[in-house]
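Researcher: Next sequence.
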Amino acid sequence: MEFQPRALWAALSLALPGLAMADDAYRLPDVTVTAPSASSTLNTSRIDTGALGADNGQDVANWLQQAPGAAVVRNGQQTGIVQLHGLYNERVKIMVDGMEITPACPNHMDPPLHYAPLDSLTQLDVIAGITPVSLGGDSIAGTVIANTAPAVFAQGPAFVPQARVHGGYSSANDATNIGASLGTANQDTSLGYRGEQIIAHNYTTPRGTVSDTGFNTTRHDLYWARKVESGELRLDVGRHHTRDAGTPALPMDMVSDDASKAALSYRGNTALGAVEARIYSHNIDHMMDNYSLRPNSGMKMFAPATSRNIGVTLGSKTGNFKYGVEYLTNEFNAYSQALGNAASRKDMFNNSSRNRFGAYGEWQGAIAPQWKLLAGARGDMVSMNTDDIVYGYSATSSASQLVQTNFNAIDHQRTDYNMDATLLARYRAGAAHSYEFGLARKTRSPSILERYLWSSGQSSAGQADGYNYLGNIDLKPEVSHQLTAATEWKTDVWQIKPLVYYNRVTDYIQGTSTGVIIGGKPVLQYQNIDAELYGIDLAAAYRVSARLNLGGTLSYVRGRNTGNGDNLYRIAPLSARLYGDYQAGKWLNRIEWNLAQRQNDVAAYNGELPTSGYGIVNLRTRWQANKAWRFAAGIENVFDKLYYDHLGGINRVANSVIAVGGQLPGMGRSAYLSVDYTW
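Model: Next structure:
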């Protein structure tokens, strides 16, 4: 059964006479689109990380699909790349505990949310589209904020222990997860440990087992927090390890990925107002190859890469005015080499660097009894450079030597000066009705890969179309001009909030044909084009009774190259999510219906394939036995439907149930169970 829009609207009309996102009186049990306030916008969604759907979590990015306007691009089970309003990768700003993380993999096997903890995450906010300048910068699609639990302090001088352990199992990929949070605190100091491990194998579908889809991740985090006279000081350190993570949509797999972090932060009241400050470091050592997890009858290659981030943020709020500065540096290295042939080593990126300094000012407040305004501006300077390329000549053609020589001969340093501005106005028409209008200019400078990928290869920041890509040192920054209009109707029992948007992107960065063919695949070079995206988001909920709640979200986006009329690549289809929750004492039960329309609006420039529509049903339940014990269980894809997520990628692994070049199917029927114990 394919998803038909007419059927969706009929279902919505039955399920919601109007559905609500949330205020203090009523909160959706799954996703909250925050109510109007001086500090939030109508395009902000807060994902409930304690909701039923999180009981079977194996990847934080998957939770984002609960939010209108959000989707997830996948090249493997651990490669959840966030898409907001049709834009993804570096176009989305992602902050994990206040850190911006640059992936080490040139194909983004390790996107930022790969490093977000599942078990201890308590805040997951999605701002799709126009973003306040205090939360934006060097991005044009929106912002995702993922934060772990704050430190908990006791009442007196004696230290009080606190602990939580959990475990879970999921059948479709034979996955187990275990975790623990251990700590102690008194009235002034809190310290603790949080750890988790997930081991998953190849997942099954109605067609059989999909090769190269398992993974193994482990996390260990320590924190220390201290109340000081005017606020709170906190230190966080941690390690994250990934092993044997298959990425069947990419030419290699993530065989190892080791990350470390350290962050010192302060939050409190000072003479400058309410201040938040942070300095952090995040380092990744990444290894991928094309032979450890998949069959390979050709040349066996491996490719190490490193990414080093250091960031500083300082923000202050005084009255209605907010201002701040940010600094982020990234050092990036990657090379490839044939197994057993040291002379074949080839630099992909050699001491490449990207440094960004930004400053912003923002005002928000009431300008009339029924009007509120948020206005801000920011400037960012992005400076980039890279060293000359070193290439082993054991098997290098004269053409490759010429490309290398030409690249090394030019000046690599580039600096962009970018300006952003945001204006959002909210009009409260009555106690149950408000409007919001927004316009913005957003700017993003090219990534290291887009500028400095000197030799054509299949590194494409996760595009995963199988084509060869080439960088362009003279790329201009992308400039986005956005318009949005939203309205919200709400009462104590129902709410509905539609939002429409238009986004015109000048100098949008996309691969374009060079006319060269390598290995039977065209070579695409990153160029600046012009593009537009437009769409609608809808979120709604209805409280039928004290025990029964209904809810739903809908997302539609269309993206076009305005120069030639072609569609933009890998855009999510029209999709919807309907659910009903029934509370009976300590039991909470849910039924979900996830739907996607057929995607025919595909990109011709890189041979994107259309995908069929589908509908998937999930059942979930949770029993809070007492304050200590909680049990959850469910069945996902109840009817074991064979379906293809349009953002799920094309198979690149031989000897799988899916032919090479075929669309990767979604996971089949999966039963799960989880147990939590707190004391």
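Model: The chain has one domain: 5-149+161-678. The two ends are 47 Å apart (CA to CA).
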